[in-house]
Specification:
Length: 388
Amino acid sequence: MKIVSLTPYIADCFRTNWVFLKVETDAGLYGWGEASLEYREKTVAEAMLELGRGVIGRRAGDIEAIWQDANREVYFRGGPVYMSALGALEMALWDIKGKALGVPVYELLGGRVRDSIQCYANAWFAGAKKPEEFAQKARTAIEAGYKGLKWDPFGSAYLDLTPEEFVTAEACVAAVAEVVAGRAELLIEGHGRFNVPTAVRAGDMLAAHNVGWFEEPLPPGNLDAVADVRRRTKVPIAAGERLYSRWDYVPFFATRCADFAQPDVTHVGGIAELRRISDMAEAQFLPCCPHNPCGPVANAATLHAAAATLNIRRLETMATDVPWRAEVAREDTDFIDGSLTIPNTPGLGVDIDIEALAKHPYQPQDLRHYKGTLTDIRPANAEYIFKK
């Protein structure tokens, strides 16, 4: 069974665009991968086509050989664009192999260590601006069954926090902390905002509200500085979504810069690489909690990695999404007791409707993180995609 085509698809999902890859074979089987890369969608789609030049005609089942050869043949290897393209290809090949053998992908990875994985919610806060609005949104998320909530309360701040911004952020955190106390874990996202002294001040504030972790407190690029923040504040640190391979994670673990590792199945190059990084974290007795805010194919791939990997401890889940997600994607997973179940259909357990996808063509979007509009990540008619 040989690979005959790689076709990228880009579709608007309001805050950004999904980037999917369909890989087809001469046996009529096809697989889906995902390379959604915020605000670089057309670039990563072109990278997938470039990868295709080296894999057309190869056996679809030779997943590891194709991955290693592709990684070798790109001289300037690594980085988010190339690794996301490679990740989409790798996911699609696992999908094909599972379908060919009639088994879920996790069976090809050694079988299950769990039937479901604990999730925490992202995007539960859409539209909230004031502390009382965040509190109400948190109540809705708890009622939907989530046992963990994450968000960025820092508005448009970058590097420093003014006194007003600090007080506003703390008020929002306090309002949500009161709602979730004893019912769900509270996690705070930093999106790489702060310099070291501001991150330390913010971390100390968050620790007072029993926050489970402070994610990406500093801009990417200096793991020693992140380690400095970790040493100087009581709040646990999570990081790693902007590292793109096991080799990037070597200094991550060497510096002891974080308490939680957060590789992204797409951006590190696929399911096998995510599992390798999780194994590296396990050797350090650090939990792996994958970054997972993208679309339905990446979510399915991460679920299969979690099914077969004991050290993947919890999973990020986009609680709300555009109302057309269910039209575009068939997803074989259920949300039960705060966890997503592992897909049991052959392959990844997800399929994409190309005709439905075409109804939502590419729309260029801009980064909202430092403009004070981060909570405007969903349309007014957004829906909970996973709820009890």
